[in-house]
Amino acid sequence: MNDTDLGPEPAIVLVRPQMGENIGAAARAMLNFGMSRMRIVAPRDGWPNPKAVAMASGAGRVLDGAGLFDDLDAAVGDCDYVFATTARSRGLTKPVLSPERAMQQARALQAEGKKVAILFGPERAGLENDDVARANAIISVPVNPEFASLNLAQCVLLTAYEWRRHSSDVVPEVMEMAKTDWAKAGEVAALADHYEARLDEAGFFFPPEKAPGMKTTLRNMWTRMVLTRSDVQILHGVLRQLLRRKD
């Protein structure tokens, strides 16, 4: 099956890739982040490639659906917008975007029904200027300038990660509750009362004129901690045990 009709994601276009292993690794990187549209332009070792299949390791469906093209013009002929990935200056007047910004733009284009492609060059030297000239914009990864070389699959993975990161179903942060719930305000207040009473008995709030401010600071600390019910129970238990041992 050839990928000649883009779906709701960009096409990853490998331009003259040299090693089947890197094609397979790129397929794995794509599928890791929910991408499956691969196009291959004039692979050095021909296609299909058994080394690519072996390296894909579970991502064979990406290779099965990959489109094979003789030249770049044919590979991107149906696309509305093309990005080219490169780590070096090309002397061409084009927008240069970070992977994050580029994938934000790609999502906006896809939402408008546009077909988007992302070009990745051969392992040895990357895309040629003639390849980059066919793109609308450049994606440049902010790598160490003293060692800017990225493996083909690494570059694909970075781009696919940014594509996935900007999807609507990726939550930036979650909290695993580990079989507990957040403590309610009343439970936190009861904990604060417990500690305040015991600390008062121990003479902690001294001198007397500073006691109100110290109590307010302590109570603010409890609410700022965002405690779970399990936390509250443990902290009650800690104080009880300390007092029991003192007695």
| Average pLDDT number | 90
Distance between the amino and carboxyl termini: 79 Å
Which parts are unreliable, with pLDDT below 50 for 5 consecutive residues or more? Answer: none
What's the total number of strands? 7
Fourth-level CATH superfamily of the largest domain: SPOUT methyltransferase, trefoil knot domain
Tell me the name of the CATH class of the largest domain.
Answer: Alpha Beta
- Summarize the amount of helix as a percent range: 40-55%
Major beta sheet, strand line-up = 3-2-1-6-4-7-5
Instruction: Label the overall shape.
Output: elongated
- Outline the biggest β-sheet: 7 strands, parallel
Overall CATH architecture of the largest domain:
3-Layer(aba) Sandwich
Structural class based on helices, strands and sheet pairing: alpha/beta
* Total of helices: 10
Radius of gyration: 29 Å
Q: What string gives the helices and strands in order?
A: EHEHHEHEEHEHEHHHH
Reported by name, the CATH topology of the largest domain is Alpha/beta knot
**Beta-sheet strand percentage?**
5-15%
Query: What's the number of structural domains?
Result: 2
Set out the fold topology.
Blueprint: E1 11-15, H1 20-32, E2 38-41, H2 50-56, H3 60-64, E3 67-69, H4 72-76, E4 81-85, E5 96-97, H5 99-111, E6 116-120, H6 129-132, E7 137-139, H7 152-165, H8 185-201, H9 211-224, H10 229-246
Parallel strand pairs: 1-2, 1-6, 2-3, 4-6, 4-7, 5-7
Helix pairs in contact: 1-2, 1-7, 5-7, 8-9, 8-10
